[in-house]
Structure formats: structure tokens, C-alpha cells
Amino acid sequence: MSTTIPHLRTALHLAAACVPVLPLRDGKVPFGNCRACAKNACGGRPHMKRAGTCRCPAPCHAWAAATTDRNVVSSPLWVAAWERAVCVGYHPGGAGLTVVDLDNAAAVAWARETLPVTRTVATTRGEHWIYQGIMGSHNAVRAGVDIKSLMSYARWLGPGAGRMADLSSAVRALVVKEETTPGRGEVVSSLPERATWDRTVATGCRHTDGYVRTGLERGLALVRSRVESGAGSQAFGVAQFLAVQHTGCPGPCGLDVIGEEIVAVAVSVGVPEPYARRAVANGLSAAERGAT
User: Fold this and answer.
1) Under 8 Å between Cβ of 90 and 156
2) Of 183 and 244, which is predicted with more confidence?
3) All residues at 6 or more sequence positions from 137 whose CB lies less than 8 Å from its CB, including other chains
4) Sign (positive/negative) of CA torsion 191, 197, 202, 208?
5) Looking at the DSSP assignment, which residues form a beta bridge with residue 207?
6) 214 phi and psi, to 5 degrees?
7) End-to-end CA distance of the chain
8) How confident is the model at residue 287 (pLDDT cuts 50, 70, 90)?
9) In this structure, what is the dihedral angle of CA atoms 277, 283, 285, 287, given to the nearest 10 degrees?
10) Which of 136, 159, 208, 276 sits CB 3.0–4.6 Å from 266 for a disulfide?
């Protein structure tokens, strides 16, 4: 075991403190699955949303691979990942924590006026507010604000400062307010006209039309499937994923038009239009930040 790898040293320290860790690669995202685990063919980790059978020794399955087992963290396959990692990630929910990720100065200002004071960690653009307690993870609960706890990961940026407060109803209410699908018959907004992506708006895209349309339609189907809850978070995830596919293109790729298609479908299943637009915009911008 080589403890000369800085990220490995940090990971071992966190694991000893019962914080589940995982390596994050370029873009500050988890390493991709190995061939045996590709497309969840192995069944996934046993502690994911659905029980699985995966016992892969590699850091597959993103947040679900996070562990406090020092033998795993320092195993050959993980060491190979730490050598290529750009930072250390951790699973807040696995450590009994919830992270309110404030992505810009406006979000930080809002939190200081709205949320209980707790331990804070400075980030590149904003702050992480860390609370003791767990809840569901949700992206884009409001402009520049994500909730990271169960089934999610966050970057380790240090222990932070201040006393950690218990998870409050004010934080939980963010999810209830934004993620509840309106009852049948309620009008949440006028359905925006659905733009259509084609080559005329993507003259600098290196992908084929079929590739883009197939990926977009699959993403829209995921948003449509969230008829009871979570459509806003799904729209964020779809926007981020699709935008990442174009980070190597010279552009333009018509991402604004792709975003409009996602917004239209999110609104059609009950997401308030302003929230849908924030979620999609945040997803597109998150992909851009990850590429820098």
C-alpha cells in the first residue's frame, strides 16, 4: 500500500472516522463501472435502492461504492483509482449527514437568511452547509441549491468550521415544497412550446443526429416516468448528462434547444415551469463546470 498518494491518505483518515469514501476522477465525478458491472449487469451494490449481488472489488456504482473499509480503500484496484483521482468523494448519508450544496454567492446569502446556522465548508463557488441527520437527495431544490445525503456523494473539501446542527425542518421543507407533484387538475403553469433540436441549431456538434435524438428521447422518457415526484430532479440529471456528452464538441450544439425540450416535458408531468427552468439551467451549467 502506498500512503504517499495524497488522496489515499485523506481517504484512509476519513474511513477511520466512519466516513464512507470514494475516488472522484476528472470532472469531479465517480469512476465508471468496469465491464462486468456495466449497465448494472451485476445487479448493483447490495445497499443501493434495490438490493443487488455485486461484490466487485473495483470502485464501481458511484456513491454506492463508498466504504469505510480501509482494506478496500487501500486495495490494488482502488489504489489505481486514487492515483488517477482528482479529489476525494464521500457519501453523506452513509456518515449520517446531509449537505446543503450552495453553488453561488446568491445561494449562500439566501441560506444565511433562511436556514439554521451549522458547520460550513468553503467551496470554489459557494459553501457546503452540513447537518447531522439524513434525508433524500435532491438537485436544484431552488436556484443554486442541491441537497446531498442518501444515495448521493459530495466532494471532501475539509472539516469546515462551526458547530454542526441537527437536520432541521427548514431543510426538509425545501424538498417537500419543490418536489411534490401538484394534484390532478391543478394548473402549475402554461406549457411552454416545445422546441425541436435539429442540425440547424447544432452546426458545431460532432455527434450524428441519430445519436443526439436517441439520447434526448431516452432522457425525456425518464422525466415523463416521474409522474408522482422527482421530475424536477430528473430533469436536472438529464440536462447534466446530455450536456456532458457535448463537452468535447467545438459547438454550438443547440443545448439551449435541448434544454427547452426537457423543460416542456417536465412541465407536462406537473413541475412548475420556473422550477423546471432552474433545474435544467443548473444541470446544463453543472456539466460546464465539470468540464473546466
Assistant:
1) yes
2) 244
3) 93, 146, 147, 148, 149, 150, 151, 152
4) positive
5) none
6) -65, -45
7) 31
8) low
9) -160
10) 276
Residues, the chain, total? 292
Quote the CA–CA distance of 220 and 264 in Å, as a whole number: 10
Cα torsion 12, 13, 16, 21: sign: negative
Give the model confidence (pLDDT) of 136-162 as tens digits: 888 888 888 999 998 899 999 999 999
For residue 181, the 8-state DSSP code is P
Rounded to whole angstroms, the Cα distance separating 251 from 59 reads: 33
Average pLDDT over every residue of 8-23: 96
Strand 127-132 versus strand 145-148 pairing type: unpaired
Q: Give the best-scoring range by mean pLDDT among 3-12, 32-41, 161-170, 269-278.
A: 161-170
User: Tens digit of pLDDT for each residue in 156-197?
Assistant: 999 999 999 999 888 888 875 444 444 444 444 445 555 677
